[in-house]
Design goal:
The complex is a heterotrimer of chains A (about 325), B (about 300) and C (about 450). Chain B is built from 13 helices and no strands. Chain B has about 300 residues and is mostly helical. Chain B folds into two domains: about 45 residues, no CATH class; about 220 residues, Orthogonal Bundle (MetI-like fold), CATH 1.10.3720.10. Chain C has about 450 residues and is an alpha/beta fold. In chain C, a hairpin with a 5-residue loop joins strand 9 and strand 10. The chains are: A mainly alpha (about 325), B mainly alpha (about 300), C alpha/beta (about 450).
Chain lengths: ~325, ~300, ~450
Amino acid sequence: MVAAGTRVARAPSRRQPVRRGRAPLRTRVARRFGPYLLVAPSLIVIGFVLGYPVVKLFELAFQHFGLPQILNMSNPKLGQPPSWVGLANFRRAFTDHQFWTVLWRTLIFTAVNVGATMVIGTWLAVLMRRVVRPLRLALTGVLIFVWAMPQLVSVTIWNWLFDQQFGVVNYTLTKLHLGNFLHHNWYENPVQGFGVVTCVVVWGAIPFIAITMHAALSQVPEELIEAARVDGAGAWQIFRRVTFPILRPVVVILTSLSIIWDFQVFTQVFALRDNRPEPWYYLMSIFAFMQSFRAHDYGYGAALSIVILLVMLGVSVVYVRQMVKIGDVR
Amino acid sequence: MTTIPATGVRTSVRVRPRRSGGVTSRAGGVAAHVIVVVVLLLMLFPVYWAVSTSFKRGIDMNRITPLWFPIPGTFQHYRDAWHKDYFLSSLQNSAIVVASVVVISIAVAFLAAVAIARSNFRGRKAYIVLIMAIQMIPQIALILPLFVLLSYVHKQNTIVGLTFTYLAFILPFSIWTLRGFVANIPADLEEAAMIDGCSRFGAFMRVTFPLVAPGLVATAIFAFIQSFNEFIFAYVIMQDNSKWTASVWLESFLTQQQIDWGGLMAGATMLSIPIVIGFLLVQRYVAVGLTAGAVKG
Amino acid sequence: MKARYLTAAGIAAVLAVAGCSSGKSSGAGSSSTPTSAGSSSASASSGVDTTSGTLTVWLQTDAQNGWPKEVAAATQAFNAKHPNVKVDVQYQTWADHLTKLDAALAATPPDVVELGNTETTKYMAAGALADLTADKGKFDNSGTWLQALEQSVTYNGKLYGVPYYAGARAVIYRTDQWQGAGLSAAPTTLDEFLKDGEALKAKYGANDPNYSALYWPGKNWYGAMSFVYGYGGAIATQDSSGKWTATLESAQSQAGLAELKKIYDALSKAPADSDESKQDSIMAQGHVGMIYGNGWEIGSITAPKDKGGNPDLKLAAFPLPGPTADKPLPSFLGGSDLVIPANSAHKDWAEEWINDFVGNQGMTALVNDAKVIPNTTSLLNLLGDNPFAKAASNSWFVPTAKNWADVESQNVLQTMLANILGGKQSIADATKAADAQINQILNGS
């Protein structure tokens, strides 16, 4: 750290001779291979760790693969080798009524959760910049606490809050005369149940969005905003015309990440339903998990996972294109 | 890393927010303050409930009439959690894994982010799509082949194996997020600095780095929390109890026969507090004025 | 030089293992009567094995929290015979242990694994577990193992595991309320049971809207199926061709479920879609007169207040009565088994360790210490006049179909019960839907 500082100070004196002599060649080489050197480490790590598993996942999706085949992996003398079944696993999914129900449910769930998370998170980030420092720090502390809380614990707490008999929510709503919520069972009606799930998911996702947006907002030059204000722009107009365009790349990224995460929501539903979600609480990730690890049908589970991947690629194609475009250097 | 700009820029950090804060609070800040307080309380309540439960006697945890404050309270759950098997070892394992993941992922991701934000190399689009697609594969579907792979190279049950697993999952995210921050910085700024007589590296350190610092911190926090809280991979990869990470250790409060809610909440509180304090320490370097100061200076 | 030396050592090791295990088997064979506590130590005296290696044992956290002493004792007994073998006991949590096991089976399996007795079938059917049929005689008390547990490690007539311990369910009730409502003897029929419950409700539920005379969470399918079996019904039956037929919609099964619904509607305030995991802490709160639970739940209900119990409650238990006085409702016999993965490299050591842990000596300590129901009828007397031990005498077990675990994991029965008890579907409709699903799952590939 200290070294970095000193190097900066020394740099100018070093620069001159370098630039005069070798600069052109070096620059050309750097231009040519620099980017590859920069992305290489990430590719190596990702390729090493995920290369085989991803290939295997695609392989499984076209196989009949259960416990006997697992055993066969460790010792070829045991169990049975996998057999290729072509598209059977996918056909099974597409002809399964439950699959389509779960898929639609997941898409709607994702839309609602991403929308709520992004709006509330961004709004909170904007507000954070307008409050006094102690309050901002307090809010940041709370956000971090929320974020840092292990999912197991936070879901447990939410489960308690909405508990039928001892839940604070039922108690408070009843005390506030908002209706008789004594013994109200929030999970009986899946719409309400997913309402609770949405609370948990959004509550857990807000910190990341708010903190990142807050950091991004700090990149917006104060001068621009003040200039706009001098020109008579209102708060909303400033946000739309000045702030948002600058935030755009970050917003796109956060939205696409939220889509990815919310489409794969798993733990929240799983734990809220006591590790035994009813079929009407299945989301795609739970559906795939149940097939893989509960029914030990790894082939079908892998096929479902690939469907998840494809659906998400489809949904976010808009974003991918945006992504590729935004960064395109002028 | 985050301390680099400290010496140079911190003074301007201190000055600017106060000035701009003064401006905004005049411009209708009361409503903002009220809303923030309300949101803060709403966000806080579940956290409060977890922490207060950790001080409640077991009998007071599930009550028809809620016990709003943990009085009468007990420290028993903290004692239990502290003395529970594998507490310190799991904390230590988590610390090693988290530190490695944060440091490596930030460094590696930043390099890649610069590459995709700043140059239009061949294969760039493919790379971006790859980074994105990887995150769309349900992680749990990869756990079996991943474990087989790690066993094959004898890295199952090791911190190295777990660290690399986390890196692979966290890197795409970090690269992507950081890319947004890098892309946000006008390249002209750097060039201008170079014309002013800075070396490429100097321009980078003086101009680019302070501007992406908030992004680096945000990604670091993300990497930190993800790797600290991840459960299922840690549980499957780390076979020995002595190699449990903190999140796996927490799960051991749940058994078929009895769930030790108090211990679970106490354990979770103990684990969260260092993170929160750590963040609040870093927080000041993410401070708002960093950018503004850098742009001006 | 060095290489040759190592090879020699390796061969010696193999011989030592083989020699030891054969010596062991003859030792146990000579004392096949299930009483001799010293059988394992007797074989130890036949020679100390100096091979080194690691024996990995996966037990559930119940042992870690409940009886770590007995685990240590087993390892100590084992190490007396194999001083150079490191016994590596790792505790697993219930929620994800099968995920972890599947991953391990694909690569580096543990040598001894605890499985819930409803989790075993799938693994037996897949050939994932070592066949112990020929070695049955090596295990103490193998002639008197609890029927339901032995059944859970038997597949197609072959033995794939060793019963570990069992748990039976009975009605746990508050003696003070029982007396307060003017009740005395335990009910002997379900009609009496319902009447007693209504007396409790009249006395304690009048001013307490949260009071449940019987707290019966709707998804408690182990309890619900006791009604099904008690009224002569069954979940599913297998014909001679091996085909399974679900029979929840049979008249007997429906009669049992109708009786359950009558009792649930009259006595329970528990949510129809909750399970029994929280029922003891709820009983400790004081708004519950009776629950249907495991023996160890008495301990957690009356635990110190810091631990979530309420030591002031006075509890006792009786077996859940049946429709007639001659027989209580059969209890589900829950429990655990110890199995050896087929790809374990240390089957012989694993067998020995298992016998050191749940053989006659280990089991006696376990029962005396943790009050679990032993794996053998020969030790049931250690529990005396225990209502749970009595309940264990009449038990039912899930169909031993290779896909049974899928019925459980897909929550077919829980869903059906939540629908019936929550009033969402009639018994006829709900059982019909469940039967269709069960037929499909059990007869699937």
